[in-house]
Amino acid sequence: MKLFVVASLLRRGAQLERLSDGITLVALAYACTPLLGLPLPPLARAGAGLLVVLGLAHKYWALRVALDAELFAHMAQSGPTLAVQTQALDAALHDLHLKPESATPRDWPSRSQGALSLLRRQAVCFGLQTLLLLAILLTALLTG
Questions:
Q1: % helix, strand, coil for the chain, step of 5
Q2: Under a CB-based contact definition with an 8 Å cutoff, are residues 115 and 4 in contact?
Q3: How many CA atoms lie within 13 A of 39 on its CB side?
Q4: What is the C-alpha separation between 9 and 127, in angstroms, rounded?
Q5: Would you say the pTM of this structure is higher than 0.85?
Q6: Sign of the CA dihedral with 13 first, then 121, 75, and 80 last
Q7: pLDDT tens digits for 110-135?
Q8: What whole-number distance in Å separates Cα of residue 120 and Cα of residue 109?
Q9: CA separation for the pair 83, 87 (Å, rounded)
Q10: CA 15 to CA 62: how far, in whole Å?
């Protein structure tokens, strides 16, 4: 059941990803307005660029979280074969060069903590992106 709960929590990362993608696309479009002949102050251009960079960082963490969400959901269905499935998972990750081979395999509580740590990193990127967007909007309102 714990694996199922972790998988469910990790799936919430998809909601953050959609919101971040929207902010990133708007920032990218805003940064490209000089191509249309519209002036864009240097500070606004830098802010939009930083929003895009944060959006790309967010996308990286979102991809990692999505992969873990699927793996945890699959493993949650393993039932009594969890140990065998865990060995198969570790072998597959090693064969695909996604995980180094270690002498001591990790238990599921530590894997859960690691996966939730990725979700927290994703949330931090989204939070920073949102705060920067609000700062840019507030600055534009106060100076415009």
A1: 85, 0, 15
A2: no
A3: 1
A4: 17
A5: yes
A6: negative
A7: 999 999 999 999 999 999 999 999 99
A8: 16
A9: 6
A10: 10
